[in-house]
Amino acid sequence: MIRKRARRRRLQRGIIIIPSAFTLGNVFFGVFAMVMASRGAYEWAAWFIVFAGILDTFDGGLARFTRTGSRFGAELDSLADAVSFGVAPAMVMYQLYWADGSWSWLLSYLFVTAVVVRLARFNVEQGGEAKRSFHGLPSPAAGMMLATSYPFTQTAFFEAYLSTLPWTQIMGILMVLLSALMLSHVPYARMPRVGLRTPRTRINSAVIAATIVTAIAVPRYYFFPALFGYAVWGLLKSVVIGFLDRLPERDPLLELDEDEDEDADESGDDEEARPLDYGGLGPRYRARRRNRLVRRRRTNPRDDNGTEDTT
After folding, report:
1. Contact, 77 vs 69, CB < 8 A?
2. Boundaries of domain holding 161
């Protein structure tokens, strides 16, 4: 009996170590990317940041699958992301475009600051909760976009059509915009659920499989345009919804649809979507509220003192 308990403890410790090992691998590739950038191997630096992003994707999934998620793991993951998707991409951009400038390094500082604040806000608002959307652009997407811009500049398409543009100024503007998007309230979709149980998850699985094949086949052409499109699509979608004056009835950061709710129940995630009160935001909301008050007064008339009029 004692031997079984000791064996179970050793197995549990080994399972707990696995997600943390992926997180530390994330840090390893982030630091290695900075080393490669200092040696002038910018393309390898970009791919190492992508490898860090892959490990960052798996460590949370492993923690949920093995039911070993903890506050320590969440904090460790945030610190790792600050290195791999904040400091490392900023260093690559500095070495590429602004190493000879006097104050241009402040662009890198701005980006790192945005990543750190973004991660701190994520831990406070969404850490450990069921998420349908990310609040602001995720820092891995922003960091990998900056890093993979260099491999994209080595493609034949770039050399033929885009090489004459002022890329030093463009990348500086892009860093500022990415910093703003990370700190914004724009909701960005998370990775969809995969599986074979429902038609939606089967379609998601096919799309993700095709994406992986494309990323492996033509990585230089895939990563930067895909990440750029992800950032622009989230922003445009939010702007269009704002113009249409469509306000969700529940919190889009935590709301789950029916398929996702079933998957959450099976995985043991019992967080409920929080009700969200928008107060008087939006003219349509105010009009509906005014109509409800008018109907209520007609069905339940009251006098000026607030008592029902029985005459």
Report:
1. no
2. 2-267
